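Risk register update: the risk that structure generation would not scale has been downgraded. Supporting records follow, first protein first.
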Amino acid sequence: MKHNKLLALTLAVLLLLGCLMGCMRVKVSGKARENESAEAVQDEPAGTTEEVFSAWNEGAPALDTLIDYVEAVTDEDSPDFIPESRRIAVFDMDGTVYAELFPTYLEYYLMAWRILADPTFEPDEEMLAAAHDIRAGGPTHTYAADMAVRHATQAARAYAGMTLNEFSAFVTSALVRDADGFTGMTYGEAFYQPMVEVIDYLTENGFQVYIVSGSDRFICRTLFEGMVDVPDEHFIGMDVALEASGQGDTDGLDYVFQPSDKLIRTDRLLVKNLKMNKVTAIMREIGKQPVLAFGNTSGDTSMNLFTITDNPYRSAAFMLIADDDVRDYGHPEKAEELRARWEGYGFNVISMRNDFRTIYGENVTKTGVFRWTEELSGR
């Protein structure tokens, strides 16, 4: 009996040791597979510059400058190294990342359509006058000097009472339409592909990208959603006051949001985010001086100069010039005047004609024909 018990105990110990060894082999094998996977990822070649910037022409001077800059400020051994928390890049939207020449700004088109063609909306005479001036000035891109603020004021009124979801749906209804003056592209797809590549490249290299636009903040959010990877909280733009749907004339300090309330737009313009207003908005909302800035007009000059002035980190500013009148509706002569001005400020100039291999994509074609007047002839 003792012999049998000893034999049984020995067998039990051997079985236990066998299980333990098997488990160890499984764990070691699993770890080996993890190591192999990690090595495979490390050995996987990163995309070449040509692959990352496939929409750019090789040797574009501004792009080479940007790549040299990013490689220097992300190298921990470089005297120009910038910690990720301070890698702030700000981009204007219209004419810098997104088209503005079909034949005018998206936000102008949206307001004109709301006032002149939306059967669900009844505009007053003041709104109609502003919309008629936009319709008349669109094809030649010429407006009175006060149009930016006048548009913003009337746009606030035209969208007042909409919830944020209703406004987003209104914007989306326009984005799915074919972009005027082109074939093969909707309004929602009219991004400059080379500049989208720049945003992706900076994001991959630890930069926080912000869109600082003269256009309505909520137009920007809806436009970029699903198209370009910028977080909602990284949009700074024209702003109107918001309020609860049941708030009425009650001050926000005296009103409690109710379960039946919706957040709605009001007719009170808070800021038209252009020129110096961009600088103050950046410091209010980001709280840090950018190290990179990208723009295209005088509305971005202050933002760019702010970025490269007295910056504790290596900084750079870029201006895009609309000098391509073959693939887009650019103005080469005006663009060359702007080139001289921007270079005088110390900005790097991006030429759409010379630097962009493609602007909107291979299947997009400029037609030179607009349906602008007909589409907005309702009132």
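Supporting record for the second protein:
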Amino acid sequence: MNTPQEILDLIKKSNSILMVCHPGTDHDSVGSNLALHLALKQIKKDSKIIFADNSPNYSHEFMPSYDQIKEETWQDQDLSSFDLFIALDIASLDQVTKRSSVEFPKNLKVIVIDHHRSNPSFGSLNLIDPDTPATAQLLHRLFKEWNIEITPDIATCLFAALYSDSKFKYPGTNSETYQIAADLLSTGIDLDDIIFHIDNFHTRKSLKYIELALKNQKHFFQDQLVITTISYKELQSHSIKKHDQDIQPQNIIKSALGNDIVAMVNENEPEICSCSFRTRDQKRYDVSLLASALGGGGHATAAGCRIEGDTKKATQILIKAVQKIYPDLSL
């Protein structure tokens, strides 16, 4: 892994910096990008953040400088006009964009700052720590090393990112996580407002989404694997959009005793399924292995991938992959 100083040196040598919110963006992605964008201004560096595959999400709008994220795709960019791409919270190249393959021109250096265990270190410089619960935790370390002033605006973005990805209880949460939270709170940020925006800004369609997810559960391998699917037809008939799916019913399903592995399968596009995996027992069932085997990635307890085909085909592919990766499970 590269050092904070090496990363800072490359940033200082750069003249035009690009950043991107990963597909299906979350508060760690948006908050980390905005926090770094604000920090770069302190060292007289401008950066451009784009939504790429995403649409603006009103649950993220409370974060300072959110309006500076450009509604542009990766494909819109003239990469020859940038000399540095900073990939935050991006575990693989298909998390830059899923709309095309990603190739970096020779002029473009790449810095990867991430916390996903499955990250292949695709950058020119890489800082990856899978033992942290959020990319924001890594950024806080860097900012301290770089003598960046943690302003209330930066603190709001970092706290939102840190809380959303860790909830101060998920794997990777440690004493440093709480120390950072205390440091950020000491800047005078509005704790209640941040948490309210993250936990209470779901849509009414989100409730229908949960209803469908719970209704469509199927159990395999002596009930230890739960696969719940929502077809393209179902999503369309109830007008459920990607932002309505932020509520993550897979976490509710995982909470039930015996549901050791949970797969949430959404056919958001015809014949293209987005799959999200959860496990109650990361020591026995590291779901990042399942995701990686299917072309995705993530963490031991939470990972994901995309599978070509409808929900029936995706289910068949998942069952075969589970049989291979977790041979101790039996039908």
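The chain has a mean pLDDT of 96. On this basis the risk owner (M.S.) recommends closing the item.
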